Amino acid sequence: MASTAPSSSGWVPAPAVGLPQHVNIVALETVFTGLPPITLPAPHTFSLTVYERTHPDEVAERLKDADIAIVTTVVITAKALESCPRLRLITAIVAGTDSLDLPACKARGIRVLNAPGANVDAVAEHAVGLYFAARRKVVPSMQQLHQGLWPERGTIIHSALTNGNAPRSCRDETVAIVGYGGVGKRIVTLFKALGMKVIITGRKGQDSAPEGRVPFLEALAVASVVVMCCPLDADTANLISTVEFAAMKQADCVLVNVARGGVVDEEALLKALQSGQIGGAAVDVFAVEPAGPDTSPLLTPEVAASGLNLVVTPHTAWLAAQTKANQHVMLLENLNGFITGDIVPERLRA
Questions:
Q1: Which pTM does this prediction carry?
Q2: Under 8 Å CB-to-CB from 300, ≥6 apart: which residues?
Q3: Minimal CB count within 10 Å: which of 211, 217, 251, 267?
Q4: What pLDDT does residue 8 have?
Q5: Does domain 22-116+321-347 have CATH number 3.40.50.720?
Q6: Active-site choice (168, 315, 328, 347)
Q7: Active-site hit among 58, 125, 267, 289
Q8: CB count in 10 Å sphere of residue 163
Q9: Annotated catalytic residue: which of 260, 328, 347, 349?
Q10: Omega into 290 within 30° of 0, i.e. cis?
């Protein structure tokens, strides 16, 4: 497959330094987002190799002759990059790049671009849905319905109670937002529209916070809802663990995680739910993905049957028709911008 289409302005740009005129592009995993029709600015032509799925052990072999790699979540290690002497660009169709060894990419002169903001609306809306499911205790109520307990007992409204109390209304909620990027800002808008009081947390470990934010532990203490929408890095790994759950003073507090699984200690979360330290949780992401009973304490058969107020979805918060359309536009912009030198600064990760 080849293209010699000129740029939209009609100007033929100079080729990227060191990039051959004919470019080998390899898409490692199209199962999640698919690909749009690929075009490159003239005089460049290209060959495109597409894989539906790629295991990390297959990365080195599949990228050994590639100039450009298109990825979503496959792990690319420094070791794999040693076998890819021609690789000049990795463009992620998604926002997250925690599966890529960014320091190794930078050391080898490999540019890494991503697609921030493509999924903002979808993730924010999913977070709101998860909040309602947890606050209204949808899962425990469904379980008791399926068990036939309503006709047996005459009522199962207790399945929607937390510590004997009825669910809060939106106007009685105080929401702490952890992570104030594009998703965090959109969640703030949606929750405020529902009448909630919303606060933005400062950084963990700091006694004070910038103007307009609330110190981290102080925010957890007053919040009735905590929403995680921060990136996963060295500073945010296990950001919420035993100490932080102890700081949540509202016994009916609900935790919502649409960030990355690693920002919440799953064992500590399970203990907080089982002990009644918090009122519920809803998570879309897991420390190990793909997640299952063997990799996450939140997904064991025992937990599923326990009646805990725990809502789980399989990392689908991003999924929406508009997300896919946005990702495809950003992918083409990244490919063409790399060649012309017109890279969107906020998408540059290495």
A1: 0.89
A2: 293
A3: 211
A4: 37
A5: yes
A6: 315
A7: 289
A8: 8
A9: 260
A10: yes
Q: What are phi and psi of 287, to 5 degrees?
A: -60, -35
Asked whether 223 and 250 are in contact (CB, 8 A), the reply is: yes
Return the structure tokens found at 36: 């749009």
Q: pLDDT, tens digit, for every residue of 29-60?
A: 999 999 999 999 999 999 999 999 999 999 99
CA distances from 209 to 17, 217, 219, 222 (A): 44, 11, 11, 15
> What are the phi and psi torsion angles at 264 (to 5°)?
-120, 130
> What contacts 10, CB < 8 A, 6 or more positions away?
none
Residue 48 neighbours by CB under 8 Å, 6+ apart: 1, 25, 26, 27, 38
SS3 125: helix
Give the pLDDT of residue 207.
84
Q: Where are the domains of the chain?
A: 22-116+321-347, 120-312
Kind of pairing between the strands at 280-283 and 310-312: parallel
pLDDT digits (tens, 9 = 90+) for 66-104: 999 999 999 999 999 999 999 999 999 999 898 999 999
Q: Note the pLDDT tens digit of each residue in 277-336.
A: 999 999 999 999 999 999 999 999 999 999 999 999 999 999 999 999 999 999 999 999
Residue 158 annotated among the catalytic residues of the structure:
no
pLDDT of residue 96: 87
What DSSP designation does 246 have?
A: H
Q: Determine whether 203 is an active site residue.
A: no
**φ/ψ (deg, to 5) at 330:** -65, -35
| pLDDT level of residue 13 (50, 70, 90 thresholds) | very low
Q: Does 22-116+321-347 match 120-312 in CATH topology?
A: yes
260 classed as catalytic: yes
DSSP single-letter state for residue 348: B
Long-range contact list for 73-79, CB < 8 A, 24+ apart? 73/29, 73/32, 73/99, 73/289, 74/28, 74/29, 74/99, 75/99, 75/100, 76/100, 76/101, 77/101, 77/104, 78/103, 78/104
Specify the CATH class of 120-312 in words.
alpha beta
Instruction: Round to whole Å and give the CA distance between 284 and 314.
Output: 6
Task: Note the residue count of the chain.
Answer: 350
∠ CA 180-182-186, rounded to 5°: 90
